[in-house]
Amino acid sequence: MANIKANKKAARQTAARTVRNRGTRTHLKGVLKDFGATPSAAAASKASSALDKAVKTGVIHRNKANRLKAKFAAALAKAKAK
Q1: What is the rounded distance in angstroms from the CA atom of residue 40 to the CA atom of residue 58?
Q2: Domain-wise residue ranges, the chain
Q3: pLDDT for position 58
Q4: Predicted TM-score (pTM) of this structure
Q5: What interhelical angle do 62-81 and 5-37 show, nearest 10?
Q6: At what angle do helices 41-56 and 5-37 cross, to 10 degrees?
Q7: Angle at CA 81, nearest 5°, toward 76 and 82?
């Protein structure tokens, strides 16, 4: 356990951020799984929005979100071509 006051505060902040980020990651996983099950324009829009919100709050990196959005766009185009 931290002995210094600033380190104790940092530990509290980290715990709070962990809880907040875990909820966002869980929601994101569910949205991405829904898109994978049924690729549709509505699901792609929802996934894109969730990714952008996760980036805005710093939960995931911007490049990862862009990579996933490109992957979903390709999957959506492939599904429409069938």
Answers
A1: 27
A2: 5-81
A3: 95
A4: 0.84
A5: 10
A6: 170
A7: 105
Handedness of CA 9, 15, 20, 25 (dihedral sign): positive
DSSP string, 14-33: HHHHHHHHHHHHHHHHHHHH
> Residue 54 is inside which H or E element, if any?
helix 41-56
18-24: list long-range contacts, CB under 8 Å, 24+ apart: 20/57, 21/57, 21/59, 24/53, 24/54, 24/57, 24/59
Please provide the distance, in angstroms rounded to a whole number, between the alpha carbons at the two ends of the chain: 58
CATH number of 5-81: 1.20.58.110
HSE of 65 in the Cβ direction (CA atoms, 13 Å)?
Answer: 18
Q: What is the pLDDT of residues 35-71, one digit of tens each?
A: 989 899 999 999 999 999 999 999 999 999 999 999 9
